[in-house]
Amino acid sequence: MNRRQLLVALGLGAVAATTDTPTSANAHALVGLEQGNLSGDISMLTRQPSGYVYVRDSIVYRLPRSRKRRMAWTVDDGTSVTMINNYVNWVKQHNLRLTFFVYSDMHGWRTLAAKIRPLVATGQIQIANHTARHPDLTKLSTHQIQKELWDCHKFIVKHYGVDARPYFRPPYGAVNHHVVKAAAAIGYTKPIMWSGTLADATRISTTGIWNNVRQYMGNEVIMLAHANNTQTAHLFARILRRIRSKRLALVTLQDALSPRPKPPSVLHATVSGTSVSLTWSTVTNAQFYEVVYWESGIRKTLTVASRVHTFTGLIPGRQYQFRVASSVFGVKSGLSAGSNFVKIASPTPQPSPSAPEPNPSIT
Ligand SMILES: [Zn+2]
Predict the structure, then answer these.
(1) Residue 288: which domain range?
(2) pLDDT tens digits, residue range 317-355?
């Protein structure tokens, strides 16, 4: 069975057969696939989905249904620094949302990190894991699979300050039970495939890319694009017009698959003098927390990076209650339930120097 037949058998058909083709640097990695030597258990992928399926065996192919028409634009690899930069400018200029699948050995992800980071903080750009060296994961041991993901993970934490979990895309879309299990064991529980592709991993004509845009763009589609050459940038304006004419909102995977983070649960507030120490539970991937409380009728908020904070100099005689919200990839949760009420003790009354002393001389 050749790669194309294999992919057709997997139900991915022509979409996957022409996508995520390797860059010259790792062309050798595909040889095994092309010869049909796909190792591991692929039976899970040969099962036909029944009806509308966006996720099967934890592998995500499309966006879940929603009342809002939406599409996830995903960009892989980054062998071209210029093209990564083109995408970042496109996002900034038109206030778009997209997901980068970072192949962390490509130096553009390091050189452009300072420019991309603010867009990651607002949630406009999501950074996801596409491994450190872009191998066919189905050919690797559990340890090697985890190392590929973890090396990329550490790169993302270091340069972008975020935890990319649970989202990863296996290079070439090569995935099996073994890969899914090995990745899930280190928190990468959402392997992301695609349901539309520009087939622009290697250089193709802009006409070819445009035909793919027309064929695949639509509601609930996860579109696969690459930052490996600059061809697609010539079509940015046309692509945007088409997105708008089809009334599609661009969303990140985070937007569509984990819409709103949970608020933390506030554990406890303890008072000591005029200070209150507040602790709450960790929310996965939270970059910061916002603590809200009222003082003298004024709503006060405070942004905190950790899950504990000590308030000092609170007003004696007053009662306080605190609520906390989490912020995950620029998306804020609702407020937690309130903490226990704590009261700052009034100072114990000292004998006042101005108080009249009993005067025994007055008789
Ligand atoms: Zn790739």
Answers:
(1) 266-343
(2) 999 999 999 987 667 888 999 999 999 998 776 665 555
> Is 0.85 topped by the overall pTM?
no
Per-residue confidence at 56, pLDDT binned at 50, 70, 90?
confident
Percent over 90 (pLDDT), the chain: 67
Based on the fold, state whether residues 166 and 186 are members of the same structural domain. Answer: yes
What's the gap in Å between 90 CA and the centre of ligand 1? 21
Assigned token pair, 320? 């306080």
> For residue 234, how far is its CA from the centre of ligand 1 (angstroms)?
21
Q: Is the pLDDT of residue 158 over 90?
A: yes
3-state helix, strand, coil in the chain (%, to 5): 35, 25, 45
Q: Rounded CA gap, 191 and 169, in Å?
A: 5
In whole angstroms, give the CA distance from residue 71 to residue 221.
5
Ligand 1 centroid vs 263 CA: distance in angstroms?
34
Structure tokens at 115: 């420019």
Report the alpha-carbon distance of residue 100 to residue 107 in Å, rounded: 14
Are residues 217 and 71 in contact, defined by beta-carbon separation less than 8 angstroms? yes
50 vs 343, higher pLDDT:
343
For residue 121, give the CATH number of its domain: 3.20.20.370
What is the whole-number distance in angstroms between the Cα of residue 335 and the centre of ligand 1? Answer: 39
Residues in the chain: 363
The residue among 236, 257, 278 that closes a domain is 257
C-alpha torsion sign, points 100, 102, 103, 109: positive
The verdict on whether omega for the bond into residue 64 sits within 30 degrees of 0, i.e. cis, is no
- Centroid of ligand 1 to alpha carbon of 79 (angstroms): 10
Distances 246 to 65, 239, 241 between C-alpha atoms, Å: 17, 11, 9
pLDDT in tens, 213-267: 999 999 999 999 999 999 999 999 999 999 999 999 999 999 999 767 789 998 8
The separation between CA 89 and the C-alpha centre of its own chain, rounded to angstroms, equals 20
CA distances 80 to 23, 274, 315, Å, are 11, 56, 57
